[in-house]
Amino acid sequence: MRQAREKESRYCEVAVIGAGPSGCMASAAAAENGLRALLFDANDRIGRKIYATGGGRCNLTNLRMDKECYHTGGSEDLSAFFARFSVQDHIRFWESEGIWLHDRQGYVYPRTDQAATIAEGFEKILRRAQVEFLPGQRVSDLRLYSEEGKRRFLIQTESGGQYFARKVILAGGGAAGPQYGSVGDLYRIARALSHSVRKPLPALVPLLSDDRDLKAAAGVRCDAKVTLLREGAEPVSERGELQMTDKGISGIPVFQLSAAAARSLDEGKTVTAVIDFLPDFEEEKWSAEIARRTGEDKDCMLSVFFLGLVNRKVLDLILRKRGLQAEKKASKVPVEVLAGIMEDMRGFKVKVTGTGDFRQAQVTSGGIPLSEVDGDLQSVKCRGLYLAGEILDVDGICGGYNLQWAMTSGWIAGSSAAKERSGTK
């Protein structure tokens, strides 16, 4: 990719703002369809956020695609977008470049298990397509400009660069990951072009609690089912590896529920997480286990009485909530309290008082509503403007879904911009 000099006024067919996964895919799709792109990014290299995805292994997509895997602020159906650039299209895109992929129970990664493979793959693709990359160029202003009857976009960067473009694709991400350059600045630019923005909130983040007793179980990782209770909403549940922290709860099931929790908390509603530390027990089997334990000899400490059920730290936490210690004799605790402790193992409540911030978030919940773009992801507020990736109000659960949306929306925006050759109207 050629790098342009700073502080020059230039014209291009399409300007792509943001060199993350959606912006790179949009640039590649535009070039494939004959439209040369100029690619802007505040970072000094493309795909900086890609390097951190999937724990550095880059979970690109998932073979299981259901509508429940994505959230939007409305009732929009994303299936038409994924029909245009599907999971299989995504896989073929990389493997046609000699970048082979593999899946682990449906979770698809590059065969190298290195996120750098995808970032460097984009570099190779864009170089071959003669996409011009402008590193260190954060766009500070975007407006419509008319001269001699021609309507163009005027792009200005913080370093003083000035550019004119016939089409613009906003693909600079949301507010998640400011350490990677995503600071939510494109929301302001979109608003100036008549778009609305559903309040951005952190998603795929830990849930926080002001319960100091949680420190007793900090560091524990275990299989659990987490149910989110929100004022005025139906309960939602997820199961997976739970992580207990001194500030709250974390892990995949918590991440999956975090966007819903963040939205309810932002609305001032009460949120509670209910943890089932023993999700494999069916009700009949669990009732029998309670009856068996409470009917046994109780001449032992509580730590022995409850041995084999939950992690010792979890037991200490549950007992602390009841004002008990593991060294207390079970015989000195009423049977109904012993049964209640066992029930707590299946329904331990954590009052959620907050979420991790955008630095911890893997994705943004909120953004520009899908109702403000058409099926080509062209703005219905400002023709010639396209939107892709995280800037739109779409967020997926963990498992490669957000990268799939980035690639799908980027491909649609880039190829659609190229096919509408008539310019802005």
Query: What's the total number of strands?
Result: 21
Global Rg: 25 Å
Cα shape:
elongated
Low-confidence stretches: 2-7
Q: Quote the CATH topology of the largest domain.
A: FAD/NAD(P)-binding domain
CATH class of the largest domain: Alpha Beta
Number of helices: 11
CATH superfamily (homologous) name of the largest domain: FAD/NAD(P)-binding domain
Largest sheet: 7 strands, mixed
Report the average pLDDT across residues: 94
CATH architecture of the largest domain: 3-Layer(bba) Sandwich
Overall SS class: alpha+beta
Helix content: 25-40%
How does the SSE layout of this entry go?
Layout: E1 9-17, H1 21-32, E2 37-40, E3 61-62, E4 70-72, H2 79-84, H3 87-95, E5 101-104, E6 107-110, H4 115-128, E7 132-134, E8 139-147, E9 150-157, E10 162-170, H5 185-192, E11 198-203, E12 207-208, E13 221-230, E14 236-244, E15 248-251, H6 252-266, E16 271-276, H7 283-294, H8 302-305, H9 312-321, H10 335-346, E17 348-352, E18 354-355, E19 363-367, E20 385-387, E21 394-396, H11 401-419
Parallel strand pairs: 1-2, 1-10, 2-7, 10-20
Antiparallel strand pairs: 3-6, 4-21, 5-6, 8-9, 9-10, 11-19, 12-15, 12-18, 13-14, 13-16, 14-15, 16-17
Helix pairs in contact: 1-4, 1-11
